[in-house]
Give the backbone structure.
Amino acid sequence: MKRINWVTAVFLLSTPVGAVIWGGFHIHEYGVSLAEVVFFVVYLVITSMSITAGYHRLFSHRAYEAGSLVRGLYLLFGAATFQDSALAWSADHRSHHQNIDTEGDPYNVRRGFLWAHIGWLLVTDHIEKRRTTVPDLEADWMVVAQDRYYDPLALFMCFGVPFLVGLAFGDPWGFLLWGGLIRVVVGHHSTFLVNSLAHTLGHRPYEPAFSARDSIVTAVLTFGEGYHNFHHRFASDYRNGVRRYQWDPTKWLIRSLEKMGLVSNLRRVPRERIVLARMRSDEHRLLERARECSQDAVESVQAQLAEISTAVESAVSRLGELEREFVRVRENAAGVSRERLTQLRADLGAARKEFREAWRRWTRELARLPENLVPTPAVG
């Protein structure tokens, strides 16, 4: 039998009410200052990305490595979100990935949008399952210390810091309202959207079996966490938005930290695996439409898909090998001749062109093939 987690329930349900009542009164009496808005935005970005880049991609998935300074900052500002310690947060999140869409999933969206968004936090049945998935984090003294002293640390970082900064600007209560209460409510529900909206809105280009979906809308609302189908298919990748143009500020932050020498060993899934997953997902959706079609039509479509996919796999495999070779050569450029670099760039250009042409053919055929899938007439 599920029991209500009263402390969490009261906090999560009272903070939005408090933000509306206090916020309405404060704005009516004192208005909104530019300093309050700037602090709200800056502190929201810092604390929220301590969750996305820190709690999520570093601690939960080990998608890259970070030194003590970066880990410490993530733990410090992550506490300001009032989303529990990195240890507990990561334990729940790893359980979610291991048991997605099943009863073992703490925020299983199949139990309803509201359950995945906030309902699961209001009961205690998931708490007993924590810690079994995080032995690596329990060996990290900084993570353990944050977990041990989480309550006073969270109170200070969430409410103490905005109040003290506000004192310096002569507006402690306004900064506490915007940088403390309103920020924590907005931060909560932007994070919660990853569990609810990212499993409801969008498409599934990499793994149709998961409820997780890719959506630019969710990505914008969650600092880049909205390419969720990709993430569940390739959870160890430091990117969620794998394409360069996709909105993923968390990816850009991690990459910037790498350029500054503060993080290292960013894990990237090879292009070949990503393309292969995309093709298998495309093929699955097409064949799902063929269930009621004649066997001859299905076999014809499968044969055409096999022929085209072989060409794509060959092209992307060659491109991946050349890209990795180019990285190795560039890292040891001192011992490489200019002619070798020129030839490698030319080979890369040709391989990219070959892959683009193969992929365009794949997408064209996917659009055309359903014309051949004529449903078998019903008997009688």
About this structure: The longest strand covers residues 65-66.
